From TrEMBL:
Gene Ontology molecular function, alphabetical: hydrolase activity; RNA binding; RNA endonuclease activity
GO biological process: one example: mRNA catabolic process
UniProt-listed Enzyme Commission number(s): 3.1.-.-
Pfam family, one: KH_1
Taxonomic lineage from the root: Bacteria, Pseudomonadati, Bacteroidota, Cytophagia, Cytophagales
Predominant cellular place of this UniProt entry's protein: membrane
Topology of this chain in the membrane: Single-pass membrane protein
HD domain span: 337-430
TM helices/strands, residue ranges: 6-26
Species this chain originates from: Belliella buryatensis
Protein name, as recorded: Ribonuclease Y
């Protein structure tokens, strides 16, 4: 039993010694690890310090470089400003030197002037001495003459003045009378000569327009197509153009009646295109009429430009050119307004040339003198004043504006061109057969009839037909119902009875057409 115990004790002692050795070994390893960690920390700290030092040096170098760059830029800017200042100082010095030289020259001139002034004063003094001597001698001689004539100086002067005055008045009166008689005779002869020469040198036509146009057709079979089923084509054409289409027994002819030449021309051209095309129905009629109206507008501009080229008038405003073209489709007392204006322009140019005035300006004023008659909007001003305002608006010469406004004596004439335009207008309008006042009043009555109907609400178009015996009123179907259409017709008739004078009776027809349009896409 004892031996196993010793063995156990020996084993325990061995275990204790092993454990002690293991503990000592572990303790030594921990110290070594700790020392390695400290060493690494020192290395890392040294590297960080070195890196910080390097970064610090880099930042310092960058700051120094930036400072040097800014300093160089500042110095460069300062040098530029210094050079500018130096340049300006040099210029100022040069100017100062120049001014000093000029001042010296002025002083020299002043000195010269002073010297001349002294010389002039000396000469004046000498002249004054001589004058005084002459006056003394003259007074002595006058005194001697007064003693001889028993008259004082003032009495002799008064007698001489009275004698000269009477003689001068007599001669002047006779001379003035002769001059006036000669001037009246010469002025009358010259005026008659200029007017006669101008009339003789201006060749114009005497024919006047009427209110009817004739459309020729190849055969009477076309009349049926133009009339259409139950007259729908001819009604559509009349509604679109505002004229009356007369299809009667006249062979190979259709009568287009209307007081407005523009409407008649649109209707004539539309009929021509429809007959050529062969497709005649209401929709096609409206399309052709719309295209024709556009073409007429272009033709108006072309007529205005052609007229200006023919008369040699340049620089006219486009709107004035358009109005000149519109004159082709207007008349004044039956006389075509464009032909009248061209005739007046030629008469003005001839008269101005005979009188030695500006012929081109006179021709321009003559062409534009009735421009107020074709203004598209209704105005309460007289056409001469309206034309003058339009000319001013489009920058025409003041003499041209005055001639336009004064050709009917609405304003005072301020230039020689104004009476020339007035005289030329009278010459052109007073020729036998040139004008027909009845026609103008008739057209004005029809125009007033249409304007009266257009003043009602809901009225789109209005056309005077049958020489003013019928008034066709086209209304907007959306704003005027079938019930109010009858009332509108009655209201128009009552207003016509109250405000207008007319022969016979007037038929008022209100047309209300409902259209529904849609598109297949």
């Amino acid at each position: 039993m004892g031996e196993p115990i010793y063995i156990i004790i020996a084993g325990l002692v061995g275990l204790g010694v092993g454990a002690l050795l293991v503990g000592l070994f572990m303790k030594g390893n921990n110290k070594k690890i700790e020392e390695d960690a400290k060493e690494k920390a020192k290395i890392i700290l040294r590297e960080a310090e070195m890196n910080a030092e390097s970064v610090k040096k880099d930042r310092i170098l960058e700051a120094k470089e930036k400072y040097l760059r800014l300093k160089s830029e500042f110095e460069e800017e300062v040098n530029k400003k210094k050079s500018i200042i130096i340049t300006n100082e040099n210029k100022l010095k040069q100017k100062e030197q120049s001014l000093n030289k000029e001042l010296e020259q002025i002083k020299r001139k002043e000195a010269e002037l002073d010297s001349k002034k002294e010389n002039l004063n000396a000469q004046l003094h000498a002249v004054q001495v001589k004058k005084d001597e002459l006056d003394r001698v003259t007074n002595q001689r006058i005194a001697d003459l007064e003693k001889i004539a028993n008259l004082t100086r003032e009495e002799a002067k008064d007698q001489l003045i009275e004698m000269l005055k009477d003689e001068a008045n007599t001669k002047a009166s006779s001379h003035i009378k002769d001059i006036l008689d000669q001037a009246k005779l010469s002025a009358t002869k010259q005026a008659k000569k200029i007017v006669l020469d101008t009339i003789q040198r201006t060749a114009t036509e005497h024919a006047i327009e009427n209110c009817v146009s004739v459309f020729n057709i190849e055969s009477d079979d076309i009349k049926g197509k133009i009339i259409g089923r139950e007259g729908r084509n001819i009604r559509a054409l009349e509604a679109a153009t505002g004229v009356e289409i007369v299809v009667d027994d006249t062979p190979e002819a259709i009568i287009i009646s209307g007081f407005d030449p523009v409407r008649r021309e649109i209707a004539r051209l539309s009929l021509h295109r429809l007959v050529q095309d062969g497709r005649i129905h209401p929709a096609r009629i409206e399309e052709v009429v719309a295209k024709t109206e556009k073409n007429i507008d272009e033709e108006i501009v072309e007529i205005g430009e052609r007229t200006c080229i023919e008369l040699g008038i340049h620089g006219l405003h486009p709107e004035l050119i358009r109005m000149v073209g519109r004159m082709r489709f207007r008349s004044s007392y039956g006389q075509n307004l464009l032909q009248h204006s061209k005739e007046v322009a030629k008469l003005c140019a001839t008269m101005a040339a005979e009188m030695g005035l500006n012929a081109k300006m006179a021709k321009r004023a003559g062409l534009l003198h009735d421009i107020g008659k074709v203004y598209p909007e209704e105005a309460e001003l007289p056409h001469a004043i309206l034309g003058m305002e339009l000319a001013k608006k489009y920058k025409e010469h003041p003499e041209v504006c005055n001639a336009i406004g004064a050709h009917h004596d609405e304003i005072e004439m301020t230039s020689m061109i104004s009476p020339i335009v007035q005289a030329s207008d009278a010459i052109s309008g007073s020729r036998p057969g040139a004008r027909r006042e009845i026609m103008d009043s008739y057209i004005k009555r029809l125009k007033d009839l249409e304007d009266l109907a257009l003043s009602f609400d809901g009225v789109n178009k209005c056309f005077a037909m049958q020489a003013g015996r019928e008034l066709r009123v086209i209304v907007d179907a959306d704003n005027v119902s079938d019930q109010t259409a009858g009332q509108l017709s009655f209201d128009i008739s009552q207003k016509i009875e109250k405000e207008m004078q007319y022969p016979g009776q007037i038929k008022i027809t209100v047309i209300r057409e409902m259209r529904s349009v849609s598109y297949a896409k």
